[in-house]
Specification:
- The protein has one domain (about 1-175): Tetracycline Repressor, domain 2 (Orthogonal Bundle).
- About 80% of the residues lie in helices and about 0% in strands.
- It is built from 9 helices and no strands.
- It has helices spanning about 1-5, 10-25, 30-55, 55-60, 70-75, 80-100, 100-125, 130-145, 155-175.
Length: about 180
Amino acid sequence: MFSRLTRSHLSFLVAFSALAGYLFHPAQPDSLSGLLLCAGVWLLSAGASALNQAQEKEVDARMIRTRARPIVTGRLSVSAGVVIAVILIAVGLAALTATGSRLVMLLGLFALVWYNGVYTPLKKITPFAVLPGALCGALPPVMGWLLAGGTMSEYPIMMLSAVIVLWQVPHFWLLALA
């Protein structure tokens, strides 16, 4: 149930993309910082997924792909889902803070607010919500790159982020057709 609530497989991939951005930078990586980055991003992603399921209980109940989620089926109450989400988010932000990079933590917080506060409500209004929503997927590698000592204006991370954004849009639209 926890794995389904947090979409742990997807959260793992999001954390892996942050690690990829970290390792992609030519500086020598610090194992502890990389571990804190991965843990923090995984926890934030898992918390955002749990919060999203609480936000979209009614919509999820109508879709074949999402109607077996724990909150929809009643195996978990909305309030319990929100409590789990808040705990995951708080620990995730603490892990990102422990990396020593305030910017990385703030980008993680921004991604969370953007996903749950902008993208999730926008999905009900327009199929083009995936365009601003793709920003959430592009940020984790940037967070890793920044933690390793890079800047947002460097060509390699800009290209990696652009590829992720370009991949996400058709991917989400194909999921919507399923």
